[in-house]
Design a protein that fits this description.
By secondary structure, this protein is α/β, with parallel strands linked by helices. About 50% of the residues lie in helices and about 15% in strands. The longest helix is centred in the C-terminal third of the chain and has 20 residues. Bound molecules: pyridoxine-5'-phosphate (PXP). Pyridoxine-5'-phosphate binds next to strand 8 and helix 10.
Length: about 250
Amino acid sequence: MTLARARLGVNIDHVATIRNARGGAHPDPAKAAALAQAAGADGITIHLREDRRHIRDYDLEAVRNAVSLPINLEMATTEEMLVIATNFKPHAACLVPEKREERTTEGGLDVARLHNQVEPFVRRLRDAGSRVSLFIEPSKIQVDTAAAMGAPVVEFHTGKYVELIFAGDKAGAADELKRLQEAAAHGHAKGIEIHVGHGLTYDTVRPVAAIPEVRELNIGHFIMGEALFVGLEAAVKRMRQEIDAARGSGRGLA
Ligand code: PXP
């Protein structure tokens, strides 16, 4: 079966992580964005964290100026980020949970519990012209709450699925994949566009990319790690090939 092509959003945060390790300007995330575009990325994802551990404020315009691709800004639900995002007006804004002490985004945003906190962010970002996405766990209640808030897009956190695969827990991974599949079908039926991301690698991306309703995958850390060995262009191309292969060549349905 041939599925609609799925977009690959390349997250370039960790180019900034390496740059910031020494200060200065090298390696430049904007240059990475341009290379990712040349290699076939469909979008550039950046996460401006509260502690600015990787992407910094000045990167936003620099990255946008380096590419013609849509920019997806990941952000916490804080007033500070809302002001930045409504001024920057990215093509897409993805609301994520953020804890200072975490190494990475450890789970989805619990929109069911935080409905009253998150809903105004959805509205204000939408009014500013950004396509709002909620980074959530693949569960019915989270999807239903996202739909009730009028979020046009959800991104399911795939970190647990990837961890179960690497732990050798085949049954657990199969259950988690089923959860992703069911949540994707449920969200799609409610008119929500389905994205996925977090922790995906060449070895884990195919089953997730093969979920018919998935329209976009956002992948960063693994691509940047591979880029150290094979170069960014080759790493992005290979990930693109894995996704296309999972979808039966990527041509077909609109
Ligand atoms: N999607 C979201 C919402 C994220 O927060 C992240 C990590 O910043 C990613 C995708 C990419 O995850 P990874 O870097 O593990 O591929």
